[in-house]
Amino acid sequence: MAYIVAEPCVKCKYTDCVSVCPVDCFYEGANFLVIHPEECIDCGACVPECPTLAIFAEDDLPEKWKEWTALNADYATKWPNINAKKDALPEADKWKAVENKKDQFDPNPGG
Predict the structure, then answer these.
(1) Is the Cβ–Cβ distance between 109 and 28 less than 8 Å?
(2) pLDDT tens digits, residue range 78-111?
(3) Host H or E run for residue 67
(4) Residue spans of beta strands (DSSP E) within 12-111
(5) How confident is the model at residue 1 (pLDDT cuts 50, 70, 90)?
(6) 50, 6 contact by CB (below 8 A)
(7) Under DSSP, is residue 18 helix (H, G, I), strand (E, B) or coil?
(8) What is the dihedral of CA 24, 30, 36, 40, to 10 degrees?
(9) CA-wise closest residue to 85 among 38, 48, 43, 50
(10) Quick one: pLDDT band at residue 23, thresholds 50, 70, 90?
(11) CA 85, 87, 89: angle at the middle one, nearest 5?
């Protein structure tokens, strides 16, 4: 079982979670982060660090965000690894509480 980054991360991309990950299993898109399911050691250290409450154990992922499991697995093989904290996106605080933002997801790599 791995941890999954779900929709609340879209357009925020806080990286507090990245700074506590002991195995560097986060990957960075233009406006989203994903966790590589084969690299995640299920420690859960990232969960309390996420300001948007976007990270869930796979078994605890709300039904409305189940599709993000495959999205994490897919983009973790396409995007660059991120292993250090960076500034959040400029409008992260504005987008933090916005719901239903899947249409804002940018599939391009970050960096």
Answers:
(1) yes
(2) 999 999 999 999 999 999 999 999 999 999 999 7
(3) helix 67-75
(4) 26-28, 33-35, 55-57
(5) confident
(6) no
(7) helix
(8) 40
(9) 50
(10) very high
(11) 130
Domain ranges in the chain are 3-84
Give the pLDDT score at 111.
78
Query: What share of the chain has pLDDT > 90, as a percent?
Result: 98
Distance CA 106, CA 62 (A): 22
**CATH number at 3-84:** 3.30.70.20
Q: What is the three-class DSSP state of 84?
A: coil
What are the backbone angles phi and psi of residue 7, rounded to the nearest 5°? Answer: -50, -35
CA 96-48-53 angle, 5° bins: 30
Here the tokens at position 11 are: 């357009």
Distance of CA 77 to the CA centre of its chain: 14
What mean pLDDT do residues 60-87 have?
Answer: 97
